[in-house]
C-alpha cells in the first residue's frame, strides 16, 4: 500500500498540472496533447482506483487532498471521458470517495459534488446536449437517450465518410476535395473514440486516405491509437485497412511485430498449430505479401535472433511465420503477386526456389543433396570472397526454412544412403560462422555420433546406457556438434526400433538444464507438427511426442 501511495503522489502533481493545462481541450494543441497522453492517463487512473478501493473516503482525502481537483477537471474533459475505459474508471474513483454515512457538512457537500459529477458522466453532457428540453425532445421522437446518441454518432460517421470519399468511385483519391489539415483534424478527433464500434467505417476510410501531400496527413496519435486498439483486440478492422496502416506508419508495424514475438515467447507452446493460429490472427504473414512490410518484419526477426543468441523459441516462431507467409503468397492472385526476388533480393535465387518446395517422401533425399551441394558451393565462395554479413544472410535463409533441416535429420536415420551431404547441411546450420577447417571438425564429430547411432538403430532391446555409451564414444566437445547431436538423438528416439522404449527416460536425461529443455522442446514440437501433417500418419510417433511434450512442460 505504501508503495502505491508513493507512486501516486509522485505522479499526482504531473497529472493535475496536465488536467489544469488541458481544461476542456478547446484548442487543437491541447487536444493533441490530451490524445498523446490518454493511454498513460488511463493506467494512472487505474492505479489510483486500485489504491482508493482499499480506503474509506476520509483516509482517501487525507492521503490525496488534491484528488477532487484532479478527478473534477478530468470529468469535464470530453477527450478523457470518451477514451476507452477512462469514464468508467473515473466513476469508480468517485464512488470510492463517496461517504456512505456523512458525519459533517463538508462530507455532505462532497457527496453532493460527487453525485453531480456522476450524473454528468452518466448523462449526455459529453455529446454537448445540455439544453433543458433535450430529454423531452428525445422522448417525443420515441428514442431513449442511448439510442438517440447512437444514431447521432452513426449519422456523423456517415457524413464524414461521405465527405472523405466525395463522389469518387475508383478508390479514395481525394486530391482537391479534402485538405491535409482537415484529414489531420478528423483523425485526431477520433482518438478518444477509437474503440466505439460505430466509428469503424470512419477509421477504415481514414486509413485508406492518402490525400495529395507527400508526407503523412493523418495524425501520429491516431495511427498509434488504432494500432494499439487492434493489437489488444478492442477493434476489428478489414485486412486492407490494417495493411494500409502498417504500410504508412512504420512504428505501428514494428510494434505489431514485437508484440507478436512477446506474445508467443511468453506463452508455453503446446503445439505448433497453436503458434500458427496466433501468428495468422496477427495478420502479419498476410501483410508481408507487401515486400516493404516483409523486409521490415524480416529485419526485426534477425535482430530478435541475434539479441536472444538464437533462442530455439524465436527460431521456431520465425520458421512457422515463414511457412504461413509462403502459403499466403501462393494463395495470392497471380495478377497482383510480387516476384520472389522482391522478398529475398540478397539471396541466391535458385537456392530460394529449392527451399520453397514442400518436403515430400518422394525424391526427398535427392532434393536435400541438391540443396546441400548448392549451399556448400555458395558458402565456400562466400568464405573466400565475402563478409560474415553475407554468410549470415545465407544461414538465415536456411534457418527460415528449418523444416528441411528436420527432414535431413530424419532422413539420415531412415534412409541412410549417402549421408555426407545431409550431415554437411546440418553441420553448416549449427556452425555457420566457423571456417572450412572448423566445420570439417564439426563434420568429423557428426559422423562419429551418426555412425554410433546407426549401429544401434535396428536394435529392439535398447537401454539408456547403450545410448549414453554411444554419445560418450563419439566424444562430442564442440558446442555446435552438441546441438547437432541433440537433433540426431531426438530423431533416433522417434524412429529407431527400440528408441520409443527409452525415449521418456533419455529425454529427461537430455533436459537437465532449462536451456537444454527449451532446445529439446522446440525439436519435439516441430517433430510433432510434422508427424500430424505426414501422409503416413505415424500414430506411434505422434502419441510418443505428445507424451514427451507433456512431461517436458513441467521443466519449462
Structure characteristics:
556 residues; 71% helix; 0% strand; Fanconi anemia group C protein; FANCC
Question: Briefly, what is this?
Answer:
It comes from Tinamus guttatus. Among the domains are: 9-97, no CATH class; 238-345, no CATH class; 369-554, no CATH class. Helix content is 71%, strand content 0%.
On the 0-100 scale, what is the average pLDDT?
A: 82
Radius of gyration: 31 Å
Silhouette: elongated
Structure classification: mainly alpha
Q: Largest sheet, described in full? A: none
How far is the N terminus from the C terminus?
Answer: 33 Å
Strand proportion, as a percent range, falls in: under 5%
The level of helicity is over 70%
Description:
Helix content is 71%, strand content 0%. By secondary structure, it is an all-alpha fold. The longest helix has 25 residues, at 28-52. It is elongated and about 90 Å long.
Please specify the SSE layout and strand pairing.
Blueprint: H1 2-22, H2 28-52, H3 57-63, H4 67-75, H5 78-82, H6 86-97, H7 105-122, H8 134-140, H9 145-165, H10 180-190, H11 200-207, H12 220-231, H13 239-248, H14 250-266, H15 272-281, H16 284-287, H17 291-307, H18 312-331, H19 349-356, H20 364-385, H21 388-400, H22 403-414, H23 420-430, H24 436-456, H25 464-474, H26 479-495, H27 499-510, H28 514-533, H29 539-552
Amino acid at each position: 500500500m505504501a508503495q502505491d501511495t508513493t507512486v501516486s503522489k509522485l505522479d499526482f502533481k504531473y497529472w493535475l498540472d496536465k488536467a489544469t493545462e488541458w481544461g476542456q481541450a478547446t484548442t487543437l494543441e491541447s487536444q493533441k496533447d490530451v490524445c498523446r497522453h490518454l493511454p498513460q492517463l488511463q493506467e494512472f487512473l487505474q492505479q489510483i482506483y486500485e489504491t482508493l478501493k482499499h480506503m474509506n473516503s476520509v483516509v482517501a482525502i487525507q492521503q490525496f487532498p488534491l484528488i477532487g481537483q484532479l478527478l473534477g477537471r478530468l470529468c469535464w474533459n470530453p477527450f478523457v471521458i470518451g477514451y476507452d475505459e477512462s469514464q468508467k474508471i473515473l466513476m469508480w474513483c468517485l464512488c470510492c470517495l463517496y461517504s456512505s454515512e456523512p458525519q459533517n457538512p463538508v462530507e455532505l457537500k462532497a457527496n453532493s459534488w460527487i453525485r453531480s459529477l456522476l450524473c454528468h458522466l452518466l448523462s449526455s453532457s459529453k455529446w454537448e446536449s445540455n439544453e433543458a428540453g433535450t430529454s423531452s425532445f428525445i422522448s417525443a421522437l420515441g428514442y431513449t437517450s442511448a439510442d438517440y446518441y447512437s444514431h447521432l454518432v452513426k449519422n456523423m460517421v456517415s457524413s464524414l465518410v461521405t465527405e472523405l470519399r466525395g463522389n469518387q468511385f475508383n478508390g479514395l483519391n481525394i486530391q482537391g476535395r479534402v485538405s491535409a489539415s482537415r484529414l489531420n483534424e478528423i483523425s485526431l478527433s477520433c482518438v478518444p473514440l477509437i474503440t466505439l464500434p460505430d466509428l469503424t467505417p470512419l477509421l477504415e476510410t481514414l486509413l485508406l486516405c492518402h490525400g495529395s501531400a507527400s508526407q503523412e496527413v493523418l495524425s501520429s496519435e491516431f495511427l498509434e491509437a488504432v494500432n494499439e486498439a487492434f493489437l489488444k483486440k478492442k477493434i476489428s478492422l478489414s485486412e486492407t485497412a490494417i495493411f494500409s496502416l502498417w504500410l504508412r506508419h512504420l512504428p505501428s508495424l514494428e510494434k505489431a511485430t514485437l508484440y507478436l514475438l512477446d506474445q508467443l515467447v511468453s506463452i508455453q507452446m503446446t503445439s505448433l498449430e497453436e503458434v500458427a493460429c496466433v501468428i495468422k490472427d496477427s495478420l502479419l504473414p498476410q501483410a508481408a505479401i507487401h515486400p516493404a512490410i516483409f523486409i521490415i518484419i524480416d529485419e526485426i526477426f534477425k535482430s530478435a535472433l541475434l539479441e536472444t543468441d538464437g533462442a530455439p523459441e524465436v527460431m521456431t516462431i520465425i520458421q512457422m511465420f515463414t511457412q504461413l507467409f509462403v502459403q499466403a503468397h501462393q494463395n495470392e492472385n497471380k495478377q497482383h503477386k510480387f516476384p520472389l526476388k522482391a522478398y529475398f533480393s540478397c539471396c541466391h535465387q535458385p537456392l530460394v526456389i529449392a527451399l520453397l518446395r514442400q518436403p515430400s517422401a518422394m525424391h526427398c533425399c535427392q532434393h536435400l543433396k541438391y540443396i546441400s551441394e548448392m549451399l556448400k558451393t555458395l558458402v565456400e565462395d562466400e568464405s573466400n570472397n565475402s563478409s560474415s554479413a553475407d554468410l549470415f544472410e545465407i544461414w538465415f535463409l536456411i534457418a527460415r526454412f528449418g523444416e528441411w533441416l528436420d527432414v535431413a535429420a530424419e532422413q539420415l536415420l531412415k534412409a541412410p544412403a549417402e549421408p555426407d551431404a545431409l550431415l554437411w547441411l546440418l553441420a553448416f546450420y549449427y556452425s555457420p560462422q566457423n571456417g572450412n577447417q572448423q566445420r570439417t571438425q564439426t563434420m568429423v564429430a557428426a559422423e562419429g555420433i551418426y555412425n554410433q547411432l546407426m549401429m544401434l538403430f535396428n536394435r529392439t532391446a535398447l537401454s539408456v546406457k547403450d545410448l549414453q555409451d554411444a554419445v560418450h564414444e563419439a566424444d562430442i566437445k564442440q558446442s555446435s556438434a552438441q546441438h547437432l547431436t541433440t537433433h540426431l538423438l531426438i530423431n533416433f528416439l522417434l524412429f529407431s526400433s527400440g528408441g520409443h522404449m527409452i525415449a521418456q527416460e533419455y529425454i529427461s536425461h537430455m533436459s537437465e538444464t532449462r536451456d537444454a529443455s527449451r532446445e529439446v522442446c522446440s525439436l519435439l514440437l516441430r517433430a510433432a507438427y510434422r508427424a500430424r501433417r505426414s501422409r503416413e500418419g505415424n500414430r506411434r510417433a505422434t502419441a510418443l511426442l505428445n507424451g514427451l511434450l507433456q512431461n517436458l512442460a513441467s521443466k519449462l
